[in-house]
Amino acid sequence: FKLPGSELESAKSLPGGGQFEPMAGRPMGGWVQVSTAGEAHWRSLAEQALAYVASIAPAKASPKKR
Fold it and tell me: Which residues lie across from 18 on neighbouring strands?
């Protein structure tokens, strides 16, 4: 789940929660993973993540090189 600061830290402390690290030694900032041990929280986390990413302004595309 992609979450902002305090919500991210709270999610990391849930059962089965931790920093999302898709490759060993390469954690993704702003992301948390919650295993099935914390599945009771998944819906709430998904709703928080959806609200958060909806509030982020889209990144501006860099001009294409010709």
Answer: 33
